Amino acid sequence: MVPVSAVRLEILTGAALEAALPELARLRIAVFRDWPYLYDGDLGYEEAYLQSYRNSQEAIVVGAFDSGTLVGASTGTPLADHAEDFATAFAGSGFDLNAVFYCAESVLLAPYRGQGLGHGFFDARESHARARGYSVSAFCSVLRPSDHPMRSKNYAPLDPFWRRRGYAPLAGVVARFSWKDLDSACATDKSLQFWARDLTATP
User: Fold this and answer.
1) Which pLDDT belongs to residue 11?
2) Cα separation of 80 and 97, whole Å?
C-alpha cells in the first residue's frame, strides 16, 4: 500500500486532459480486467470511448498523480451526453436526464486503494456537478451472478461505500452494454444497475 500523502488529485481540463487520455485508457484496461468487469480491453475502443471527454463542454477528469505518474482517475459528464445509451434504462423513471450528472468511472491501481481517494474522486465530481446546476448524481455498476466462476474470493462489494456517500440503487433503472470478457471469444451483453443521489441533500 502506498501512502496517500504521496498522491495529489488534480482536475484536468484542456491540454492537461488531452495529455492524460492515453494513460487513462491504459488504466481502464488494467483496472477493469479485475472482477466484476473482467474487461478484455482494447486501446482502439478506448480511444473512441474517451473522445466524449474531449467533446463535452462539461466533462470532468480527476487525475490521481504520484510523482507525476497517473495512478488513478475518475470521470464524469452530463447524462444527456449519453442520452442514446441510457434513454431506455431511464424510460418511465421520472428523471429529467438534463438534471443528472453521470459519474462514469473511477479507476485506481491496487496499491493506492482503501485510503480515501475514492471519496476525493466523488467529492470533486459532485462539486463540479453542483456548480453547473445538476441536482442528481448517478453512476452504474455491473451486475454479475454471485456464483460466477471468475468471481474473486477477496472481492469486497463497494455498496457500503456508495451508500455512505448517499447513493441508492434505482429500482428498474438498468442499462445494457456489451464488452468482451477475459474468458470469452466475443463481446456479450451485460446489465448495469444505476445508483443515484440527490445533490441538494447532505449524505
Assistant:
1) 94
2) 6
* 58: DSSP letter: T
DSSP codes of every residue in 156-188: --SHHHHHHTT-EEEEEEEEEEEEEBTT-SSEE
The residue whose grid cell reads 440527490 is: 198
Please determine, for residue 5, whether its predicted confidence score (pLDDT) is greater than 80.
Answer: no
CB of 138 closer than 8 Å to CB of 102: yes
Could you tell me the CATH number of the domain that includes residue 192?
A: 3.40.630.30
Higher pLDDT, 5 or 124: 124
Position 203 in a domain: no
The number of folded domains in the chain is: 1
- Residue 55 has a pLDDT of 82
E-strand ranges in the chain read 7-12, 60-66, 69-78, 100-108, 136-142, 168-180, 187-198
